[in-house]
Every structure is written in C-alpha cells, then in structure tokens.
Amino acid sequence: MQIGRVPLVGRQADVGALRDEIAAVGQTGRAVVVSGDAGMGKTRLLRDFTDGLDDVVVVRGACVDSGSGPAPLTAVTDLLRDLVDALGVETVRRAAGAGTDALGVLVPALGDAPGDAERLADVVVETISELARSHRLAVVIEDLHWADGTTSEIASRLVRRAAVDPLFVLLSYRTDDVGRGHPLRPILAELDRARLLTHRPLSRLSPADVAILATAVHDGPLATDVLLDIATRSDGIPFYVEELASFSGERLPMSLREVLLLRYERLDADARRFARILATGGVEVTHPVLRGVFDGDEAALEEAVRTAVDAQVVVIRDDAYAFRHALMQEAVYAELLPTERTRLHTAYAVALEASPPTPRVLADIAHHWRAAHVPDRALAAAVAAQRAASRASAWSTAAEAGERALELWNAVPDPEGVTGMRRVDLLRRTSGALVSANRQERALAFAQEAVALWPEEDTVGRAAILADLATSELQVGVSDGVASIEQALAILGDDPAHDLQRAGLLLSSARVHMLNGRQRAGIEVAERARETAELAAAAGDPDAAEIVVQAMLITATCLVTGGDPAGLALFEEARSRATGFARPLMRYYINYSNALMLVGRYDEAIAVAREGLDYGKAQVVDTGPLVMLEANVIEALMYSGRMRQAEELGSRMLPMMEPGLYSAFLRERLVCLAIWRGHIADAEAALGTARRELDMFGAYEFQTRFGMTYDLGQLALARDDPHAALEWAGTACSATNGGVLVLPLTAVAAHAIALLRETGEDADTRPFRAVLESFRDWPVTRLWNAVFAAELGEGAWQEAIDADGPAYIRAYARVRHAEALLASGDRSAARDALAAAASFADDIGADGLAARARELSSNAGLEGAAPQSVLTAREEQVLELVAEGLSNSQIAERLYISVKTVSVHVSAILRKLDVPSRTAAAAVYRSTAA
User: Fold this and answer.
1) d(CA 742, CA 640)
2) CA dist., res. 526 & res. 43, Å (int)
3) What share of the chain is helix, strand, coil (3-state, %, to 5)?
4) For the chain: N or C, fewer Cβ within 10 A?
5) How far apart are CA 255 and CA 598, in angstroms?
6) Residue 716 pLDDT grade (very low, low, confident, very high; cuts 50, 70, 90)
7) How are beta strands 167-174 and 320-323 bridged, if at all?
8) Is 531 a residue whose pLDDT tops 90?
C-alpha cells in the first residue's frame, strides 16, 4: 500500500481547462468555480493546478465549519496572510490605502489602530483588485458551502471584479452540501445570470480511471474482481477509491461508514483516543486548544498525532490538526459514547474560553456548551458570539448565533440574568443581523415577533422596533412600511423628550413617500421632520442637524420630480448646510445630479456626479452611493449623446454590482440605451432580468418603474404593436405619482396613435395632452410637445430638432424630419437631411437610427447616398472585435451578450461577407476601415 502522494487521475481535462482560463487573463480576468460532491478531489485538483503556475502570485483560503455554523472570515484571513507573505506588508498596505486599518481586524500587522470592521468586505475587494493591476494574481477560495455571509459577499464581488480587472478567481464548493435554501445558491444563480462565472463540475471517475487510481494507491496490481468491486462500491468518487484500495487485502466494507473507519480502527488505542478528541472539536483544531483538551502529556500527544498522520487519518495544517476528509471526522465522532461526548465537549468549551474571544471562538464555545448540555453557558456564549460577529460584519454568523440563542432561551431558568438582555432585545438584534445577511423574510418574522412581545411601557424601544419592522416590510415588499412608522410615531406622542427619535421616524416616512412618487406627502412629512429637529439642530446637536439636511434634500427631490424648479435652489441650500455630514452630502450628489438630468442639464449632472464620486472615495463611504453616482454618470452620458461611452461604462459596471435596487435601476437604463443604440434583441433579452430585479427589490420605487414602462412601450413599437405601446403609455399617464417622469411616455403614445390612424383606428389623445399641459413650463417639455405634435401631423419635426432634451430623441426627430421631406417630394432637401441625420446618429452612437437613415437614402436612390453596409450595427461591432483578435467568449464579455449569440453573429458575418474564416473577415474589415 502506498500512503504517500498518488498521481492525480482522471482530472487532466480539468487541469487543462483551468490553465486555459488563467492564460486568457489580460486586461480583464476570469472566474471559475469547481464543484462536486464530498470526496471528488476538489482540493487536490486546485493544489495541483496552482502548484504548476509560474510567475503567478497565488493566495488561497478555505472556509471552515466550526460545528456551530460557518467559522467567520477564516478564508479571508488566509488570503490576507498569503498576500503579506508573498508581497510584503507595505505593498498590501499601499494597495489598501485609506482602508488598511480595516484589514488589521484580521491581520494585525496591516493595521496601526483598530479598524472599521463594517467596511472589511469593501477594503478586501479593493485591495485585491488594486494588487491584481500590478501583479499576476490568482485568488483561490475553497469550500464556499461553509462560507459566512461576509466571505460569500467578498467572493461574489471578486468574481464581478474579474470581469473588469486582470484577476483570476478560483472557487470551490460541495454540491451535496448546497441544497435548496442554502445561501450560496442565489449567489451562484445571480453570477450565472450575469455570465460572470465558468462552472467546472467534477465528474465521477470512469471504471478505467478507478482502476488506475486504485492500482497507484495499492502500489501494485489488483485482481480484476477486486477492481470491479472498488469501482462499484466507490461509485467513482476518488476518496472512496483510495480508502477501498488501501485495504484491499482485508474484508471490503459494506457501507461508507465502515470504509471511513478502516484506517481509524487500525490505529492503536492512544491514537484512536486522539482521533475521537479531534473529531469532537470539528474538522480542524489548533494545537493549543487540543492540547488543553488532551489529558495526556506532551510526549503522548506527539506520539498519537504521529501515528494518526502516518496512517493518513489526520493531516497537519500549520499549527492545526485536521482529518484527511470531513466525512472521516463525522464517522469517528459517531463512535463516541454519550458520556464521552459530554466530557469532551465540556473540555473544549473550557479550553476555548481561555482563547482570545474572536467570533469563531465564541461560536465554538456556544456549540460545545450546547453539546455538553449546559444551556446557560451555551446561551451566554451564543449572545457573546453574536455581538462579536456583528462587530466583524460577519452577519450570517451573527444571525445564526442569535437564532441559536433564541432556541436556548427557554431552556435556561434565568436567561435575562445570564445574557444581560431581554428576549425582545435579542429578537431585534437577530432581526437586524438577518437583514444585513439578506435573509429578509426571516428578519421580518423576528421583527414581527419582537413587536408582538415588546413591553407596552417601553415607549422608546417599541418605537425603535417598529421602525426596524418598517425596514423589513419595505425590503420584503409586503408593504411600504408607512403604517409601522405611523404606529411608532403615535407611541412617541408629542413628548418633547422624543423629538429627535420622532424626527428620524418622520424622515423615514418621507423617504418612503419620495420613493413611491408621492411628492406632496413626501414634502409635507419631510417638512415636519425638519421642523421637529430644527430646535435641537440650532442648539448644536449633530444628529438633529443631519436630519434637517436630509429633510431638505427629500423636499427638493419631491419638488423637482413633481415639476417645480424651485427644488433646484433648495438643493443648493441643503448643500451649504451639509458640510461635515457624509451621508447627506452623498444624497445631495445623487439626487441633485438626477434633478439636473430631469431639466436637461446633462453636462452639469455629469460634473456633479463625478464630484460626488471623488468625495465618496476620499471619505471611503459605502459602495451603494458610489454605485448610484456611477449609474447617474452613465444615464447622463446617454442623454447627452455619448451613448457608446455610456454603454462601455455600464457593461463594465454591471457585473460588479450586487443584485438590488441599484442594479435594477442600472439594468433598466441599459435597456433604454440598447433600444436607442438600435440593439433591440439585446434590449428584449436584458429586460427580463431587469424586471425580475425590480420586482424583488423595488416594489415601492417609482422612478425605475416609469423608466421600464417607457422601455416596454418602445419595444412594443419596435415589434409594430401600437396597441400594447398605447396601453403602457396610458397606464403611466393615468398614474398620479409620475410627475415629470411621465413626459417621455407622451411620445410613445403619439407614435402609437399615429400608427393606429394609418389602419383606420383612433385613440383619445386628451390624457396625454393634459400631461404636457400640466408641465408646460418645464425646461424639456418643449421637446416632448414638439415630438407629440409632429407624430400626429400637427407640427414640424424641426421644432423637436431645435429643442433641449435627450440627444437620441433629437436624432430620431432628424430622421423623421428627413422622411417628411422625402414624402413631400423634396428629394434634394431629403438627401441632405438624411445625410445629416445619419452623421448625427453616428456621432451619438444611435446605430439603429444611422442605419435607418442610410437605408432610406439608399432605397430612395438619392444621389450621393452612402453605400449601405450588408451587416447590421451589432454585426459591425462583432466584426471589429474579431479583427482585434478576440475570441467569442471575450467578445461576449465585452458586449455583455452570450457566447451563443456571438457565434450566431460571427456565422452571419461570414455568410454575408462570403468569406471562409474569421481571419478573412478580419482582413475585409481592415481593408474597408482603411
């Protein structure tokens, strides 16, 4: 029997595929996830692959199950330590920049002072991304099925970064541990929908490969019947093959447990006792902790460890001991007697209590006291674990510790005395952790229970938990949360002692009204919040001063979206009072840049949003506001006629965004962009994902919903379905909360009505005329009035061309103006107008309109018409990238479409150009470009 390292069998194709992926890393990166059941050889494959890499900095971390849930941040800690070992402390600190102290939470050498643990995920992702720009970097994170929430978030965001940075990310997880309801499933599903992750599922070994591996493990030939038996019983799982082949001369096991225990049973008594102690501690236990539990002397422990290692039952990882396979730990643990389990769990709890109280240690203490049937100490440890995990932003661990504490609560005679808190406080904390862990429905259930149980006499606390309930209700989408906020306000009453808390509740209510498009209510409630906080703000209370500024910003936003330009001046007043408050300043930059777009001042909007980005990055604020400002820049670029730049920024940004309201907003804007770029099929394909995200996260957000309604109307027109287009426009214009966002829908309606009139039908134009009349003094209404009139034959398209507003609408007006000239018989003027329309559309990136202008000119046989390309606008894009030497997968990433779609486009290009190969097509492109 060979107990040393055996060759990697049956995985050559997997290693080759991983090598191809990392070789493809250039200006952008690659992300791969390796999956398979326990025992499939994921870790072995990853180590063989990374061991063969030259000139690559490989950092790896493995997630660990502590026995009571995911051990928080173990993989992240390992990654940071590997970075320090490979590149040095100073290099990592420089890459981390202003956030370096946050890394000191996990690796003290990186921080000069206690850092902000809540920003840990942001800083880790930014640090690794920065290092990837100057080093060939491969990040390996194993066993994601055991990842805590923060580690999962970091892994997900690194995958998104690999879409835009030269970073190689390699992940692994057990498929048999990721069942329905596992938090990793939606993360992988979203990354799959965004086409950011290459899956490499490991298949089971073929009978031939089983024979090769079994022979190598046995270190000699095996009888055919033995090999067939191993192949049948192992089911092609490499670990089982190795176990069965190692003891082929003895009775073959009839069950997996027997297979796993064969090596254990061959150990001497001391080594078996050591294995049982180790199994009680979990898959991996550090030497100091195990030494505290082991009741023999140091020499006896060393001998037992050596015996277990030599027999390949245990492996040594730095200063820790671990079973060779997690399944072996489970099998050995099942061998313990009940009294032995109680004794060992007690010993582990006592030993761990002498260790530094990290979230992992505290969670382990809670697990061991619970298993030792000491509920009061388990409860105390679980509450302490929740506090520590919350401070470290390990929200999944905090939520699980809270749930465990709640399960133990009634088993303890005096739980409040043990924990120092009430059960309702624990419910509230656990609900908050669940919100941060994105387990919204569970959070809502705990918040509802806390509200039901909260003591009536605790006025302040009851109002606070109702505010938490409102947040969960809004996140889950069961309501907008206003009723809960109103109930909290009623509880506080008019007592001046509660003014600040009351003002905060009013602010939350005003924000909900603003998001729902209830402008008048938003203004009214925001002004109440401002009045309530003004006195304390004037006395120097910074919290009150911040509420005042936030209320002013909500009022300004509601005024502008409701069609009152006075809101613009209020934005500037709020800005003058926001100095020193990061959150209000970021809200100013977001909302004011959006307001400037609504009045057609697109270049100013870009400048304000970019100023906000600079400020936010300097202040190291949360990523959410920065993402929204980036989205505002993209939207303003689209309106101002820089559509290609907007598309490029959007395609780079979207893969980096977590699913949520911000990503739904950007997806919707990119659908609109695709429509006006002329990429209708891409817009149709992207619309489904945008609508799903909006339904999940934006049930009470009106701005994106009106934008999506506009998109649906435009796509209906593109499908020549004026009835559907008119229905979408009519639904929007009949709503009471659209404000100036309804204006673009009047153009959809007019176009649809004009098409219906061509077939002898008609429709009522009065609702749409009423919308235009109600906003007649709004800066961009002139454009929408002109388009409405021209579509219905009541005005000239030149009026729209000369108006202020989105560049793509003015490009559309140019094409329609040229069509009108052509229809009137003025061929000379039509020729010039079509040429100008095509040129303008080309300049702003409206490929569909440019192609339409040229097609009209060509079909009319106008003198001097530019020759029409045989390729569509999208095919021209694909051909340009083919000429650059990009593969189909690289083109798919660049254009944010599927590889299959790229393949279809390439086939069409070869057919239309009548060329035999991509090389020939590239040559044609270069000759025409020249």
Assistant:
1) 20
2) 56
3) 70, 5, 25
4) C
5) 69
6) very high
7) unpaired
8) yes
Helix (H, G, I), strand (E, B) or coil at 32: strand
Task: Spell out the residues 6+ positions from residue 660 whose beta carbon is closer than 8 angstroms to its own.
Answer: 693, 697
> Letter for the amino acid at 177?
D
CA 326-328-329 angle, 5° bins:
65
What the block records as the tokens of 770 is 């009423």
Angle at CA of residue 851, ends 846 and 853, nearest 5° = 95
Instruction: Estimate to the nearest angstrom the gap between the alpha carbon of 514 and the chain centroid.
Output: 25
Nearest-angstrom CA–CA distance, 593 and 590: 6
Q: State pTM to two decimals.
A: 0.60
Is residue 160 pLDDT above 70, yes or no? yes
Task: Decide: residue 42, CB within 10 A, 0-12 exposed, 13-18 middle, 19+ buried.
Answer: buried
Residue 205: DSSP 8-state: P
To which residue do tokens 């080309």 refer? 842
The alpha carbon of residue 896 and the mean position of all alpha carbons in its chain are separated, in whole angstroms, by 17
Beta bridge partners of residue 394, listed in sequence order: none
Contact predicate 843/641, CB 8 Å: yes
CA distance 838 to 841: 5
Chain position carrying tokens 């490989």: 58
> How many H helices and E strands in the chain?
48, 8
Give per-residue pLDDT as tens, 869-901: 677 777 888 888 888 877 787 787 777 666 767
CA distance 715 to 543: 47
Q: Residue 712 burial (CB < 10 Å; 0-12/13-18/19+)?
A: buried
Q: How far is CA 356 from the centre of its chain?
A: 33
Q: How confident is the model at residue 102 (pLDDT cuts 50, 70, 90)?
A: confident
Cα–Cα distance measured from residue 638 to residue 586, given in angstroms and rounded to the nearest whole number:
22
Q: What number of other Cβ atoms are within 10 A of residue 897's Cβ?
A: 23
Q: Under a CB-based contact definition with an 8 Å cutoff, are residues 59 and 140 in contact?
A: yes
Could you report the per-residue pLDDT of 187-218, keeping only the tens digit for each? 999 898 888 999 999 998 888 788 888 888 87
